[in-house]
Amino acid sequence: MVSQQDAISNEPPLQGERFSPINKTKRLSGNRGRTPPTTTSVVPVMATTACFIIVSRNDIPIYEAEVGSAIKKEEAAHQHQFILHAALDIVQDLVWTTSAMFLKAMDRFNDLVVSVYVTAGHILHILMLLHDSRNEDGIKSFFQEVHELYIKILLNPLYLPGSRITSSHFDTKVRALARKYL
Amino acid sequence: MANYLSPFQTIKSACDRLVIAVEDVSDLWPSVKEGFEQRLPFQKACLNNKTRNPVFVEQLPAEFILTTDPRLRSRFPQEQSVFWFREPYATVVLVTCEDLEEFKTILKPRLKLIVQNDEKEWFIVFVSKAHPSNDQATKMAKKVYAKLEVDFSSKKRERCCKLDLHGTESIFWEDLESKMVESIRNTLDRRVQFYEEEIRKLSEQRFLPVWNFCNFFILKESLAFMFEMAHLHEDSLREYDELELCYLETVNTPVRQREFGGLDHGDDQAALLNPVFKPLTQIIQDDSFREFEFRQYLFACQSKLLFKLSRPVEVAARGYAFIISFSKTLALHENALPFCLREAWVITACLAVINSTSSHYDGGVVAPDVEKEFYRLQGDLYSLCRIKFMRLAYLIGYGVEMERSPANSASLSMLPWPRPAVWPVSSPDASSEVFAKEKIILQANPGAKHFDIQRKPLPLEPSSLLREANRRRASLSIGNVSELLDSRHSVTDGSGADGVSKFSPSSKTNPSSMSRNFSGPVNFESSSPSLDRPMRLSEIHVAAEHALKRTISDLDLLKSLSTLQDFEQKYMELTKGAADKYHNSCWKRHGVALDREIAALCFKHGNFDLAAKSYEKVCALYAGEGWQDLLAEVLPNLAECQKILNDQAGYLSSCVRLLSLDNVLFSTKERRAFQSEVVRLAHSEMKHPVPLNVSSLITFAGNPGPPLELSDGDPGTLSVTVWSGFPDDIALESLSMTLVATNNVDEGVEAIKCSDAPVLKPGRNTVTLALPPQKPGSYVLGVLTGQIGHLRFRSHGFSKGGPPDSDDFMSFEKPTKPVLKVFKPRPLVDIVAAISSALLMNEPQWVGLIVKPMNYSLRGAILHIDPGPELMIEESQMIEIEDYMSVMERMPQITESIALENVSSISTEKSEQLLLGNGKIALPDWASDITTVLWFPVRAIDDRMARGTSAVYPQRQSVVDGMRTIALKLVFGAFHNQIFERTIAVHFTNPLHVSTRVVDKCNDGNLLLQVIMHSQVKASIHIYDAWIDLQDGFVHIGKGDGRPISSFFPVVISPSSRAAILFSIRLGSMTNEDEVPTESILNMRYGVSGDRNVGAHTPVSANPGVERELLFKSTLILQRPVLDPCLAVGFLPFSSDCLKVGQLVSMQWRVERLKDLVESPRSTLNVLQDELLYEINVNPDNWMIAGRKRGHVFLSTMQGSRVVITVTCVPLISGYVRPPQLGLPDVDDANISYNPAGPHLVCVLPPTLSSSFCVPAAA
């Protein structure tokens, strides 16, 4: 969704407008590319928000987890789902224009960022993560490992592809990965 | 140079096209002006762009200005370098001359003077006034022009052209145009070069302290403006882009503090599309410009050019990015700007971009991608505008009226509050407004959810406004904030709950509204908020409203914030705009999120129809994509709309969908509420009862394991597992299920009803359905239908086998596991006779029936036995049944024992005796699945006595004689629905077949009669005694009783073997008495030892211990020899060797009288004794007889008289055929002696090939 970008702190906000390959003109990238020199040092060690969802084809969510370390607010789950769902609009535009599997920071919502990992299978499965951390490498590794886990789930003959993942083992592993990487 | 800015602006506004100077030497301009100006604007001009590439410009405007014009004259020379763009781009020198001399002396020097300025691009137009008819003048003009060309044109460049005023030379105009364009091009190139040089020089000094942005700007914009005049918009745009980059660079160097701007009245209205909003002279600051105005100015220039280039999509894209980045810039300067200027600016900017791009966008020939992108950008702009608008509205107290949806909440709760330097304070005289606001807050009924759903309302604010506003008030100390927090806590703890709850009925559900009223009625009395007292929420709202009124100059925006109605109208407009644009751009998820907001507002205004429609759209998307959390949030609203609209069908289906959502999304209490709604409606009188689809709620599956298998015609019971998603037990009026045959789809399916009205428990239920006989095939479960109250429902939901909660039942296809298999009609049972050989006639015998079930249970089967004619069942006897397999096991033993003639009763361990009642017996249960043999005693009745035959002429008895039938009917199956009928033939026979033969005629007249006994049964026959009762004319030799030597007995005849007994008899005298038997009878006493499994056996007797001797009688026909032949018939040989078809042949018989006829007492019957009747017996198919078949011949009564009877015949077919026979009907056979006897068969050859002989088609 469209959002207004405001900085919580007084420093200039980083990368404000929504990233989209189409409106990425030279002018904008020149504008955006500047990172305030203070940012890296000032990133506070604080509770992170992260909502992870696996979306199967037909856009059906088959796994959801709030994996952030922030204290879970009851109302936040709705918002996170809402943001991730709306981000599918962008995924569907973007996914066929690139061969990359990991689409980092594909959508932004205020200070939350949506990163997406599209599996390379014949069927479109999308791993989406809504997060506020900037650790791109960690997110990428998280996605890759979850993808492996997901493939293991798929290999289970009792699992019907496209149905909800109810395995508690999977859940535990995903949460462990989230702690490790995010 | 900065002081050039003002004249620069004036010049720029005055000058809008290229100038071409006209040097009117000979006062010709008025006469040619019209023709010249007709050529404007230039249709196609080839110019060079900045990179010296040719660009074709269409419709290039230009203006002809006389050099004497004050516009060109009144210019200060020092300005020229900067404002060169307004100088003429070409000079046209108009001359005429009719005299060479004049030209040389006057005109040429003058022209030389004019064109000596090298910087000018010039060319000469010679106007010939000579009329074409005037040859002299024309020649003169040509001469002068030629001279002119020699003087002024060079090889490199033609600088002259000639115009005939009276001629119509189109070539001239083209020539003129090309010359003008060439001049313009050259000038332009030179000027571009000049400007570039200047700009480069300035750029090099950029980091020097003398650097002045204004100068750079004037140069750069001059160049841009020149490009724009020349319609080289691309180049112009590039200049502006570079200018912007350069500006941002200077602005961001934190060298010195600059004024930002934006403090003037009206600055809240974005001027990003209006370059002349403020004169640049007003925004100049030191050596640069104020950022607020100047960046908008630059963007306005860019967008103007982009519109000229017909690129509204790019305007939208750049506009959106600009608004975002500029908004951030505004945020940096927010504490210096008026309260909420930033929000107001974003709103107006978005609307301006939307309006201008929409009006410029014609949607014509653009790629679909571009079009989508455009709509998406517009949607983004609308959406951004909407959020900012909502934020403003929240500040002035309309927040309580806003829908707390995830979309709104996500947008607003993550958006920080405005950060003015000082939060506005309400004025003391605004108490009435404060009161009004207070009232609005108290009256508001936030988020009353339907179905009593209790949810924490989603926040619309990043943090409490109360806290934020008070914190930002300059006078409030930190201590006061903590005090404020403490009072909040006390309310939360409940200590102040009584005082608060009076004013805030929703305090329990809405923590933010609690905080609004934290100060309670105590502070309410003090009308003016002192500086040391925190403001109340209503006061904050009023203060914000006042501040906004001061900030916002846009009347439209002010109006839309003035009342709640206006706010909602504007809100609706923005939301609809955003939703429409997103839908147009295929961003359905974004669009649908906004549809939900539209629906919420429609609902609030009582426009339930529209609300329902929008909600349906939203629900359809969320349901289709399976985002249940989001669906759970919207669906109750839709249900409520439908309830209000009295759309019962929709309401019911919404309730069902609510129930079928994931369990965790709603509490049990809420789910019960949904169920009670469904049940309430189902039991009410519905006007238009509609079938309800509950596929997601009630699912079903066949039982795991192999399908139920039924034979054709069998009913059965099918048990089906049904999962109910209702939270409570639900009573159904009926429940039925259709079965769909997998092999033929088109056949109408019939529903199978559940016998009772089931009550479905939550979760798994097992329902038993009575199954009527089905057609053969395999069946899968089709549709579950049922009735709750008056409501019919159906479910297609097929669950995989687990409870539906854990399965994503939408995502997998229905498995086609059959639940029922009905086999094709096939033999289910077979009944055959156990024995193949014959049984004893007239004796009680066991008949065995092998009852063989074929994979089908015979439990409870009943066998009807109906013996045919001449057969009766010995009802006194029990019927025995035994296991066939055990019989088969001992079969070798049995055959052996028969061979050893030592048959003992071998009983099987599995056998039972049954009683036949009324022709029926019930099979025992142990026999229901195994092959059994059923033994029952019958007796075939045959009154006729067995007949012996002659061994010389053996005559076989017909098999049919001993055949008896038993009609069987087996009724079986679980419902006695299967019937098997069969008629079994049983063969009965006499034990022996007797034939006789005279072995020897002894010399003394005794005859040795051999009686051959042929055993007919597969059992040993013991003959204990045998004797013959002879017929008349035969007597036993001696005084014997007709028995052979008794010591021979008993004779044992093995199965199917023969034995013989010799009797010696002789001919006796005929008595002619009536009582004397005409046939001899062979009597025989015998016994049988056999097994019933093989064939004939010892007759069944009531007391099995006693072995009874049986009596067998057979007639024997003994024929006395021919004793008194009186006629001899002899067949004469054929005259030819071979007979041929169609060849006449004579048959000849010779008849000779052997005896005087008188002596014969029997021939008294002959009336005419010398007449002999003859008859030819012949098969008419084989022979054609020519002549009489029957007639009399004369034969003397004298002994030895002869006659030859000749008959001519024609054989009709070839082969061995029986020849005609001569018969004498009047004479007894005993008196005729055939000697020699006629042939039995004669050989007839086929006809010769050449002959054409017709055979009659039929006799």
- Rg of chain B, Å, rounded: 66 Å
Mean of all residue-level pLDDT scores of chain A? 70
- Assembly classification: heterodimer
Provide the low-confidence segments of chain A as ranges.
1-45
Please report which band the strand proportion of chain B falls in: under 5%, 5-15%, 15-25%, 25-35%, 35-45% or over 45%.
15-25%
Number of separate domains of chain A = 2
User: Which secondary-structure class do the elements of chain A indicate?
Assistant: alpha+beta
The N- to C-terminal Cα distance of chain B equals 146 Å
Radius of gyration of chain A: 17 Å
Structural class of chain B: alpha+beta
Unreliable runs of chain B, pLDDT <50, ≥5 residues?
475-530, 800-813, 902-906, 1159-1168
- Strand percentage of chain A lies at 15-25%
Specify the overall morphology of chain A.
globular
Provide the residue-averaged pLDDT of chain B.
Answer: 78
Strand arrangement, major sheet of chain A: 2-1-5-4-3
**Whole-Å distance between the termini of chain A?**
24 Å
Give the helix proportion of chain A (percent range): 25-40%
**Helix proportion range of chain B:** 25-40%
Query: Hey, which two chains have the biggest interface?
Result: A-B, 48 and 57 residues
Overall geometry of chain B comes to elongated
Short synopsis of the structure:
The complex is a heterodimer of chains A (182) and B (1259). Chain A is 35% helix and 18% strand.
Describe this structure in words.
Chain A has 182 residues and is α+β, with helices and mostly antiparallel strands. Chain A has 2 domains: 1-44, no CATH class; 50-181, Beta-Lactamase, CATH 3.30.450.70. Chain A has helices at 26-32, 39-42, 76-94, 136-155, 168-181; strands spanning 50-55, 61-66, 102-109, 112-118, 126-131. Chain A has a 5-stranded antiparallel sheet, sandwiched between helices. The model of chain A is unreliable at 1-45 (pLDDT under 50). Chain B has 29 helices and 53 strands. Chain B has 1259 residues and is of the alpha+beta class. The model of chain B is unreliable at 475-530, 800-813, 902-906 and 1159-1168 (pLDDT under 50). In chain B, the strands form 13 sheets. In chain B, strands 10, 12, 15, 16, 19, 20 and 21 form a 7-stranded mixed sheet that branches. In chain B, strands 22, 24, 26, 27, 28 and 30 form a 6-stranded antiparallel sheet that branches. In chain B, strands 4-1-5-6-7 form a 5-stranded parallel sheet, sandwiched between helices. Chain B is 33% helix and 24% strand. In chain B, helix 7 runs antiparallel to helix 8 (233-252), helix 24 (608-625) packs antiparallel against helix 25 and helix 25 (628-644) packs antiparallel against helix 26. Chains A and B meet through helix 1, strand 2 and helix 3 of A and helix 8, helix 11, helix 13, helix 14 and helix 23 of B.
